[in-house]
Each structure stands twice: as C-alpha cells, then as structure tokens.
Task: structure prediction
Amino acid sequence: MKNFRILFSAARSFYNDEDTEIIRIPNNPFNKYKIGSEPSPEKRAVPISTIKMIRDCVVPNGGTAELARDLYMASIYLLGMNSKDLYELKPGDIKGSRINYNRSKSAGKRSDKALFSVAIAKEARVILDKYVGHLGKRYQRSTYLNNAFAIGLRQVIDIINDSRDVQLEYIDFYSARHTVGTEARNTCGFSVDDVAEALNHKIQANKITDKYIKKDWGKVETIQSALIALL
Result:
C-alpha cells in the first residue's frame, strides 16, 4: 500500500497543474488513510531448558546433526552470531580471547561497518577450534550451510524428542539470536539499550551520541557472562 500511495502521488503531481487550475485527479484517498506500521518480527526465542537439551544432545559423530548442535550453541555463546558470519569467520579474526568481525547483515548499512567484538567463552573455544577455517571447504556457499542447519536442527530435535519423551517443536538457526535477546532482557534484567548493544543493533535515537563515545565492550561481556551462567 505504501508503494501505491507513492505512485498515486506521483500521478497527481504529473497530471495536475494548480497554476493553470487543470486538476485531472482531484481527490486523494490517502488523506484519510493511515498506513499501519510494519508487523513486529515473530518472537522465536527458545526456552533455556530446550537450549540445555540441545547442548547435551548425543548425536552421531561427523554428521549434520553434530554440526547444527555445535554451531547453534556457538551462536548462543557468542551473543547470537548468525550463520553467515560463522561461515565467513577466519582464524585471523580471532585475536587472543576475542573475535572481531563486521556483522554481514548490517556492515553495508552503517558507518561503523557493524563492527563487533565478542569474548570467546571457554564453551565456544572448543567449537571454534573444530570448525573455523573448515566450513568453507565443506560448504561452497553460506546458503548451503543454512540448508545443513535446517536439516541438522530437525535431526537434533527428533533425537531429543525420542530420547527424552518430549514434544519439542522444530526451530531454526536464527532462534539462537532471539533467545539471546529475550533471556538477556527478561531473565537477566538488562536494559533494552544494553541488549541492543549486545546484539550489535544501532538505536536511531542514539545515533549522533554514539559518535562521541569510545566503544567499550565491558557491558557486552557482562551480558554474555550472565547468559552463559544460565546454562
């Protein structure tokens, strides 16, 4: 509807000439029509109890389920790092006990290139050592890795349901990021602004102020530690 309003306004500007009082399109129905805001994204957070079951799930070695379980947990430990960023992660991005990277989804839209620095929790270190530098050899594109995640996570949930006699719903990889945000806010009690920083989101209201503040990852580390403590 928004695009139609833009097209209608362009047509009125083209065909109407107020100076000569030639008005071919006199009415504007959009004067009384209010376009609603975009719907909020679906909340896909996963309960901590489910995250623990995923972490502890016993899967066949070397298979897609193992890959999905490991990297899903890595995303949790690394504050919702998405699949493409995990895929593109190189050994050189790991500086001692930290990962410094530009979030692929936002890098081209922000002046800071969506730079993010996250501490490598000991729980994540083993997983990173296992996969960083190897995913590109196993999957030609990040989209192929996404397909593997979709298959692998279904396998993980099936194994959990069969072995624990529960009925968990299937999840997607991005739910890890939703879980990080939800638990940091609702369970750990951090402010929305702090959670936004931990998710590497830019708050438009703070856009100018941010330019004057030197980046300090201390709050992010505090949130990360609190989340991992839940596990």
The chain is about 50% helix and 5% strand. The domain at 48-230 is CATH 1.10.443 (hpI Integrase; Chain A).
